[in-house]
Amino acid sequence: MAGPYTTLIDPKTLAAHIQKPGWVVVDCRFALMAPELGRQDYDASHLPGAFYADLERDLSGPRAPGLGRHPLPTLAAFRATLGRWGITRETQVVAYDEASSVFGSRLWWLLRVFCGHEAVAVLDGGLAAWKGQGLPLSQEPPTFRPIAPYRGGKPRAGATLDTDAVSAVVSGRLRRLLIDARGPERFRGLAEPIDPVAGHIPGAVNRPFEENLQPDKVFRDPEDLRAGFRALLGGRLPQEVVHYCGSGVSACHNVLAMVVAGLGETTLYPGSWSAWVSDQSRPVARRS
C-alpha cells in the first residue's frame, strides 16, 4: 500500500483501505457545549468500522487545578485506550470529526507526540467530505476484542511547554513565539463564551485555526499554509513556535497545519488559555 499516511488522507483513499487489516478509523466528533452530542451522532451513523473517541473521556485526563479544561491524558491511560481500539505500532490510524478536523487533530497530535506513532492521519474535510462523495456509513459498532495497551514509543522531547515556561516567554526570559488558534473576537478580548477571563497571553499573535481551511473545510494547499505561517513568524524559526487555544485542542490544528506546510514540528501549550487565567495574577492582553 502507499503510505504510511502521516498528515492528511482524502476520502477516496481511505475508502480504498478502510476494510483492510492494519487500518483503524476513529470518530472524534464532539461538541463543547453539548458533550454527549458527539456520541449520539456516532451512534446514528459513522464510517464503517470506526471506533468512537470522546474528547473528555479518551483524549483528555482528569481535570486538576491549573491544568486547563482539557488536560492531557496520562501516557498509561492513553496507551490503554489505544489497546481498546486495537492500535499497535504497525497500525495505520485515521481520525476524523464532522468537518473542521479540530478534534481529529487532537488524536493525531496525541499519537504522534505521546507515542511517536507516525502512521496517523486526519480525514481531510471530515465526515462532511466523506458524505459528499457518497461513501457508505454504518450504525454498527466495530467488532473487535481489545488487546494489550499500546507498546513502544515515547513522548517527543520538547513537544510541550507548561505554564511556568510560558510565563518565561511572556517575561522575555525564553525566546518563543506564541500563536493563539482561537477566533479573533476571543483573542482580542471582545467575547469569551467559555473561560472566565477574556483576552490573550501578552505577546501572542493570532492564527485562528479556520484560516487553515478552505470554505469546504478541506485544508489549504501546503504553499498557502506555508505563506500564512511565515508571515506570522516574521523571520523566526518554526521551532520557536508555541501553539495554544482555549484548552489545548484547536491548537493541535495549527500544529498539524504547520507539518502539512512543510515547516516541521512545533510545540503545544496543553493548558492553554484556560490554564493561564486560572491564576488571576498572570497578565492578560486585549484588543491587539
Question: What's the short story on this structure?
Answer:
It contains ten helices and nine strands. It is α/β, with parallel strands linked by helices and 288 residues long.
Helix-strand blueprint:
Elements: E1 8-9, H1 11-17, E2 23-27, H2 37-44, E3 51-52, H3 75-84, E4 92-96, H4 102-114, E5 120-123, H5 126-132, H6 163-171, E6 177-180, H7 184-187, E7 205-206, H8 222-233, E8 241-244, H9 251-260, E9 267-268, H10 272-276
Parallel strand pairs: 1-5, 2-3, 2-4, 4-5, 6-7, 6-8, 8-9
Helix pairs in contact: 4-9
What does this structure look like?
This protein has 288 residues and is α/β, with parallel strands linked by helices. The protein is built from 10 helices and 9 strands. The strands form 2 sheets. Strands 1-5-4-2-3 form a 5-stranded parallel β-sheet. Strands 7-6-8-9 form a 4-stranded parallel β-sheet, with helices on one face. Helix 4 packs across helix 9. The radius of gyration is 18 Å and the shape is globular.
